[in-house]
Amino acid sequence: MSKEFDVVVIGAGPGGYIAAIRAAQLGKTVACIEKWKNPAGTLKLGGTCLNVGCIPSKALLASSEEFENASHHLADHGISVENVSVDISKMMGRKDGIVEKMTKGIEFLFRKNKITWLKGHGKFTGKTDAGVQIEVSGEGEGGASSEVVTAKNVIIATGSKARHLPGIPVDNKLIADNEGALSFDTAPKKLAVIGAGVIGLELGSVWRRLGADVTVLEALPEFLGAADQALAKEAAKQFKKQGLDIHVGVKVGEVKTSENGVTIAYTDKDGNAQTLEADRLIVSVGRVPNTDNLGLEAIGLKANERGFIDVDDHCATAVPNVYAIGDVVRGPMLAHKAEDEGVLVAEVIDGQKPHIDYNCIPWVIYTEPEIAWVGKTEQQLKAEGREIKTGQFPFMANGRALGINKADGFVKMIADAKTDELLGVHIISANASDLIAEAVVAMEFKAASEDIGRICHPHPSLSEVMREAALAVDKRALNM
């Protein structure tokens, strides 16, 4: 007789493990299926985000930023440091230690909430009156190769994997995706990056700070086309100043590898044939959903032509009691979006009426300066014919930013011209990932720009720029 659970979650990434915890909090019997193994062959919870994504990349970004500060910016504070060196293996060890701590933390939370971790690959095999049947193959109890469990409700949270390009084989040595680029043993002298999205910019920044000469090739005609144009323009200026060589509108051709490195043939935006030689290449051209080999057809479900599972506003699939969240469904591939959907589905299963406003999900790029936004861009709103007013305030006029030597960037706010409702907030600055949270709260409450302008902000702090940008919407900034 198979084990029966109220809720079975397939995948233990940010969406899956949070869904499992919330369902357990609500009194459900919960199991979570996960097969991820680290390079040592040990099964780990946390998915891509914790193991080879958000967490390790931010650890390396922080380490490389410390190195850059010591090498180039401490002198501004009157601090002299000589012979600064970097130990890549120790840096990687720190990163791995943080990952280990976080994944162990999820194991603790599973035990605390009495969640059963089913170790292996989950695949649908059919439906019975008792519920959905799922075969778990791989690491069953007592060395069993597989077991079948029954779920009254299923949450598919299998995440995504790096998109690879045809003709460019990823070996995670010479040619790497996000996984390999987080584990280089040395900083390459010349590094090529295909893709100027979040991952390409963050990993390109890490290795540039550690000594690489970085060239980024982007197929799209505009740099950071999803961001507000003012933000994208400022980011391009800052990255160029730092030494990132970014080319947009390129068409990548043949990629050849040799003992000496990688050669990339491409056509530039003007149609001219170019050749780029590098020691290593990072391919970061987006991600694709993990929906293959799930046995969806066994329960009358299938992925769409792009590999995603179609769901409604509450993440329900076409099959009753089967839900899907995170990177396998529509919307941005963001860990915090997956987490919110995981909570939402657990509460729907419990009979509650939760809601997610997808317009209030923030985006962040953890470069230096950081880039963050929520809501719509000026170009989107103008395309909609919306009457708007904007306010912008620079960090160079902020005492705290000057004191910490982080005065680049600005906050831009967009409000409805008639009602003053906040429609979008766009930040490029130090700590933008933290500052954007105020804007998310304001937009969730349908606040006006005046509401932020009338809230007392601590002085001196970076958050004062949020208030000044809000005041600037009505052309009454106090410090400009």
From TrEMBL:
Catalyzed reactions: N(6)-[(R)-dihydrolipoyl]-L-lysyl-[protein] + NAD(+) = N(6)-[(R)-lipoyl]-L-lysyl-[protein] + NADH + H(+)
This protein's record includes keyword Disulfide bond: yes
Matching InterPro entries: Class-I_Pyr_Nuc-Dis_Oxidored (IPR050151), FAD/NAD-bd_sf (IPR036188), FAD/NAD-binding_dom (IPR023753), FAD/NAD-linked_Rdtase_dimer_sf (IPR016156), Lipoamide_DH (IPR006258), Pyr_nuc-diS_OxRdtase (IPR001100), Pyr_nucl-diS_OxRdtase_dimer (IPR004099), Pyr_OxRdtase_I_AS (IPR012999)
Domain spans labelled Pyridine nucleotide-disulphide oxidoreductase dimerisation: 361-470
A GO cellular component annotation in the UniProt record: cytoplasm
Signal sequence interval, chain numbering: none
One function term, GO molecular function aspect: flavin adenine dinucleotide binding
Annotated residues for binding of FAD: K58, G122, T158, G159, S160, D327, M333, L334, A335, H336
Binding-site list for NAD(+): G195, A196, G197, V198, I199, G200, L201, E202, E218, G286
Obligatory cofactor(s): FAD
SUPFAM superfamilies per the UniProt record, alphabetical: FAD/NAD(P)-binding domain, FAD/NAD-linked reductases, dimerisation (C-terminal) domain
Active site: H459
Record PROSITE patterns: PYRIDINE_REDOX_1
All residue ranges annotated as the FAD/NAD(P)-binding domain in the record: 5-342
Subcellular location: Cytoplasm
Cofactor note: Binds 1 FAD per subunit.
Record family assignment: Belongs to the class-I pyridine nucleotide-disulfide oxidoreductase family.
Protein name per the record: Dihydrolipoyl dehydrogenase
